[in-house]
Amino acid sequence: MKFTVANSKRSISKKFSLDENGELNKEDGGNLTLAAFDTQNCPDITTLYNYMVSDKCTDKTILIPGVTQYDSGLILTKSDIKSREDEDIQQNLVSRSKDHFYYNGSSGFILLDYDPSSDYAQNEGKPLSKDELLAILFDVLPELKKAPMIWKNSSSSNIYNSKTKEIYRGVNGQHLFVEIKNTSDIDRIISVFYKRLWLSGHGYIFMDKTGRLHDRSIIDKVVNSPEREIFLKAECKKPVSQSMEYEVFNPDKKPLVTESISDLSIVENQRFEKLVLLAKSKVQGKSDKVRAVYVKNMHDKLGLNPTKLNECIESHILYSDFPIILSNGVEITVHDIFTEPDKYDGEYCFDPFEPEYGGLSGGSTKAWIDIGNRRIHGHAHGGIWYDLEFSDRKSPKELAVTVCDNNDHNSMFKKAALGAIEMRYISTEVDQLITMIAKFANLKVGSCRRSFKGFYNRLGGDYGGGSGNDGYGGGEGVGGVDVNLDSPALDGDGVIHGEMISSNISLPINLKFPHTRERGEMRINLDTFENFEFMMKVYNIKFSYDVIFKTPTIIFPREEISDGDDHVNASMSRLRSLCVLNGLGKDSSNYAIELVNGNQLNPVLDWVRRCKWDGLSRLDVIYDSIDIATYGDSEDVKVNREFSESYKKDILRLWFIQCIAALDGGENSPLRASIAVPKYEHILVFVGGQGVQKTKFIKSLLPTLYNGYILTGHELDVKDKDNIKISISHWITELGELDSTFRKSDISSLKAFMSKEGDQIRMPYAHAESNFKRRTSFCGTVNDVQFLVDKTGNRRYLPMEVNGLLPLNQVWFDRDKLREVNVKDIEIEIVDGVLVGGISGGYGDGNSRGEVDRDVNGNSIDKNGNKNWSWGSEDGDGDKNGGNVEGDSRSGTDIVGSGFCSGIDNDDSGNDCEIKSDSKSGVEFTGSFGDSGGSVSSGKDSGSSGDSGGSRKGSESSERKRESGDRENGRNEGDSEGFESKEGEKAGRESEGYIEKGEKAGNGRVLVDGWMDEKVVRIDEMKADFSDPNYRAKKSSRLLNDRLGVKNKGVGYLNLGSDEECQQLWAEIYFYYIKGEQWWPNERLEEKLGYVMGLHDRVDLIVDPLNDKFDFQKNDDWREVYINRGSEWVDANGECGVIGQAYKFHVLSQKEIAFECGLDYSNSIVMSKLSNYLATKGFKGKIYKVKGVSKRGVKICLLRGQILLRDLGK
Fold first, then answer.
1. pLDDT band (50, 70, 90) for residue 779
2. From 94, 129, 582, 672, which residue has the greatest number of CB atoms within 10 Å?
3. CB 664 within 8 A of CB 605
4. Do the domain assignments include residue 1047?
């Protein structure tokens, strides 16, 4: 686990003492302004526990979940770091901010922080006990049950009097440190946990002192920021003391793999949002009252304008005159901050609206000043930020909130008019001022305009009184348009110069727009696309469109618009505001559609195409990891198994290629111009019971960063447009439990939907529907083996019954085995724990040619994928022409061929192949690797090694035998003869710790690609292929014994779920796709599917017997069209419909139909379903004449070859 431990030079945690009356006094500690830090690489949760209970962990110790780029150093404030920039300081300096602390994706911990709250109604406001808290967490988050974790009481719990033993505070807050595999997934998994708790009834609303409402749950969702402080103990002044309680759970279990925990479904997210909104609505009235009291008190105390203060709270804005109290008690204003930015940047301050938060007397300050982003970041109530507005020229909004506290409207409009003239507002700013006054004074815009106009014009302005065409006066309008496309604010490529970017989007742009018109002394910006685009460049607002998610992204500087669920609408609203602010019509915001469409992104396709496939088949690894049930009806079990394996590979390969084709829209397939149709209608269906990990496998097909492009558990309803949009707004959509989709969607409609090439959808920002290419590949999961209900549409399904599936992060494979490199004659030499002479490529055993790394085109490549090898000829038989190898050595230790190869390889008799290397550190290896022996030489050592033995000599004239088993630092040295001997092997095992003691050798070395890499491993992290007769597992997880002859062969097992290997998997599939493989079944696969799907057809004990006996196509409607004339059925016009068909129609009651089909006509459920089926097929009960007798029933046609049982006398 990687995290940071900081030890402060001064008090930082909560302080407990007794006051003069003997009462317990609690004060918040100071801020972390000076501390020494160390990055920890903690092997497991037990080690962290041992540290917590040790004397090294004090009240000045804090944990920080993230890490920095340094192993150690000092934590200072940003301003302190700036002040020391010119000093020669040997230590690494960082601030406790996201600028320096981050999650690096290694293992670490998440903190589940519980603080009791009276607002939590489940427990009547009482604190939860440890058992109660754990019971709730394990119920809502069952994944935690087997995770390694530490429970401890919070740093403010268990406070007592050491003399009298009086307990002042029992267990109050509680902390759970959960060990996880990947810290880069923390934000997502905490959000999942938080929402699950809300959905289970463990969420509540907290109201702060300003009346703001915050959603909360029994765990704090914001404490897991990488730079967050976690206090472990309190500072107690005698006789006050503290006792800490700890408990470790599952210390021997693996870290929690959070990626295997799915996101909430769309429905669950919507339900969560509704719950929060409902909970807030219940206390909104109380919130308004609290806000009103707070504003009044702050006005009375500080003299702040009530309207402006209310707007500041609502919009998180602090204007120039707003007071800020620094941590040293000095009061400044926002204006002062920007007057001396270097002095105040990074300084701690009290929360602007709740300065008493944390305790004034304790000096706790929960906010800090961030000049770069023009913000104050507060940590009160889980975190909040405030934008800093600073300008010598007041914005219309600030002027409005300043004047609106005046109850005398005449005085209010007079001040507004004076301010507008003083600020030299243009017409659009005047309009905005009037609108803001109407809002804050609760007046109608029309009456405000009339009142403002009177004062404005009397004071020298000319609002609506001149002869200009714009209605604001100002003299004669200029008819021509001034075109200024080559703005000095832009470079030659149309990119805004960095210094011209506006840092505050609350202020209008003071640059000349591309299209303007002069009216009198005023310049009017026209409502054109060029003006809108220019405005976006100056404000540094970015646009893009994700073709998979089908969502626009509008990125504002400094996260002006939070990336919430209603991001698009909020962004469009802000764009309309900016248009008005800069004199463009608010409808100019519609130009955003053009900018969005002009930057279309396909992040997943870009990710796939960034990687060049290395030629090793990860698809084969996928095939081997899936345990398919046995299909086939042969008496030969082997034949059935071969059919099943072949079928599995065929449908998986087809579906994977369909995924890539959908992702690419079929654009880059060579089949596009000939036979390919850009539709992706085949549904891979995993059939199997609960617990075989069907959904987890699907979710694991992309790494964490792109995992959102996979939707699982979706129930498709083709009648619901919103439901359709969700399903096609992902790359891979799993129809979870297909039965529910079949129930919701008419089968014929479902078939039509799956066959579509595109979809018509109206996006939130658009006025009309747009046509979108289908870029989704569907799959499904189902428990019932016989799930297919529509025998006419089954060709779209690719069913596969499985006994078990492994998510990619549970699949391990041996890269060396995928390479099929023969290493029988290559021995691995380790000096000082480092691989010496690791050779990639050019191996031969006398029976086959030397193998090398090759790219997908067959070209030889080096470790980095460069085409540096030029191979000799290959004759394809017993003698193989290999060649001389010349390559580089990295640091004189590892040799990876990167030169040329020509000459001969060894044949059966053991002729040698010469291998040369140029060393960058003066080490050179030359020698031969053949059955008859060879030599190895370097700058220091020379000698030979082969099957017959050898020796090793060095310039120091020292000889070290492997049988001596030098144990220092786990080194294993000696000659190959000793290495082959039992004594030498034993010495090697004991000294190197590589075989039988490998699991205890802390930092092991794993051979990957001919390189020996550092890796902390455990015996259960690497999976051996026990089915392979060439390998048998030793106790070490890092080495296997090759029965073919190699005694110490390094094996590097790789995880298919890693980012790199998963990317290689999809790069491989993309390669097949661009080479022309099709994503629809060929005739051979069609035959296999025909057989397999018959096994998955649903047997309906009522419907199937009916269809076996009667022709339901010949219903009442059919008989109205066609009439029987002899051997012909003709329509009403006498035109022939069907010739030579002798259809037998009979009038039967429902009871008789049930009898004919062997159904239980005494069962009301059976008869009800029969009645419904007849009605849906177009049969109505009527009275017919049968042999002169009236009979009520339906007229139904027997299938050819069928006969009524009654006619047989049954």
1. very high
2. 582
3. yes
4. no
Q: What is the DSSP letter of 90?
A: -
Q: How many CA atoms lie within 13 A of 924 on its CB side?
A: 8
Give the C-alpha separation, 516 to 92, whole Å. Answer: 53
Cβ–Cβ contacts within 10 Å for residue 464, how many?
17
Cβ atoms of residues 910 and 824 within 8 Å: no
Question: What is the β-pairing status of strands 174-180 and 149-153?
Answer: antiparallel
For residue 657, what pLDDT band results from cuts at 50, 70 and 90?
very high
pLDDT confidence of residue 326: 87
CA R_g for the chain: 38
Report yes or no on 1042 lying in a domain: no
Q: Which of 993, 1009, 1030 is the last residue of a domain?
A: 993
Q: Which residues of 971-1000 are buried (b: 16+ CB within 10 A; e: fewer)?
A: bbbbbbbbbebeebbebbbbbbbbbeebbe
Are 653 and 738 part of one and the same domain?
yes
The four Cα atoms 206, 209, 211, 216 give a dihedral, to 10 degrees, of -20
What is the rounded distance in angstroms from the CA atom of residue 974 to the CA atom of residue 962?
3
- CATH number assigned to the domain comprising residue 771: 3.40.50
- Rounded distance between C-alpha atoms, residue 527 and residue 583, angstroms: 8
Residue 845: CB atoms within 10 A of its CB come to: 21
Which strands make up the sheet holding 482-483, listed edge to edge?
A: 482-483, 515-519, 522-525
Examine the domain organization and report whether 163 and 266 are in the same domain: yes
Handedness of CA 669, 674, 677, 680 (dihedral sign): negative
- Name the residue with higher pLDDT: 300 or 957: 300
Hey, is 6 helix, strand or coil? strand
pLDDT in tens, 369-387: 888 777 888 766 656 778 8
- Between CA 868 and CA 887 the distance in angstroms is 9
Residues 273 and 343 in one domain: no
Cβ-contact 653, 647 below 8 angstroms = no
CA distance 788 to 777: 19
Q: Going by DSSP bridges, is the β-strand pair 941-944/914-919 parallel, antiparallel, or unpaired?
A: unpaired
Kindly report the backbone phi and psi dihedral angles of residue 1173, in degrees, each rounded to the nearest multiple of 5, phi listed first. -65, -40
Is the model's pTM score more than 0.70?
A: no
pLDDT at 1096: 76
Residue bearing tokens 């690894």: 621
Residue 1021 domain flag: no
The count of other CB atoms within 10 Å of the CB of residue 568 is 18
Scanning 972-1042, the segments in alpha helix (DSSP H) are 976-980, 982-992
Are residue 1159 and residue 1086 in the same domain, yes or no? no
Question: Is there a domain that residue 1010 lies in?
Answer: no
Model confidence pLDDT, tens digit, residues 932-977: 333 333 333 333 333 333 333 333 333 333 333 333 333 333 333 3
In the β-sheet with 34-41, what is the strand arrangement from edge to edge?
93-94, 72-76, 34-41, 2-8, 61-64, 230-231
Q: What is the amino acid identity at position 38?
A: D
**What does the alpha-carbon distance between residue 734 and residue 717 come to, in Å, rounded to a whole number?**
13
Number of domains making up the chain: 7
* Per-position DSSP letters for 191-250, written without gaps between them: HHHHHHHHHTT-EEEEE-TTS-EEEEESS-SSTT-TT--EE---EE-TTEEE---EEEE-
Q: Are 996 and 1035 within 8 A, CB to CB?
A: yes
Do 853 and 879 have their domain in common? Answer: yes
Alpha-carbon distance of 1003 to 996, in angstroms, equals 15
Residue type present at position 606: D
Tell me which of 571, 598, 625 is where a domain ends.
598
Is the domain of 98 the same as that of 206?
Answer: yes
pLDDT digits (tens, 9 = 90+) for 1058-1111: 888 999 999 999 999 988 899 988 888 888 888 887 777 766 778 878 888 998
Q: Name the residue range of residue 1089's domain.
A: 603-808+1079-1094
Instruction: Dihedral sign for Cα 274, 280, 284, 288, please.
Output: negative
Residue 514, preceding peptide bond in cis (omega within 30° of 0): no
Reading the block at residue 132, the tokens are: 């109660």
The count of residues in the chain is 1210
State whether 331 and 358 are in the same domain. Answer: yes
